[in-house]
Amino acid sequence: MSDGAARPFPHRHLLGIEPLSREDILFLLDLADGYVELNRRPEKKLGLLRGLTQINLFFESSTRTRTSFELAGKRLGADVVNMSVSTSAIKKGETLLDTAMTLNAMHPDVLVVRHADSGAVALLARHVACAVINGGDGRHEHPTQALLDALTIRRRKGRIEGLIVAICGDIVHSRVARSNILLLTRLGARVRLVGPPTLVPPALAAYGVEVHHDMRRGLRDADIVMMLRLQTERMRGSFVPSTREYFRRYGLTWEKLEVARPDVLVMHPGPMNRGVEIDGVVADDIHRSAILDQVEMGVAVRMACLDALTRRLREAA
Question: Which of 38, 132, 236, 309 is deepest in the core (most CB within 10 A)?
Answer without folding.
Answer: 132
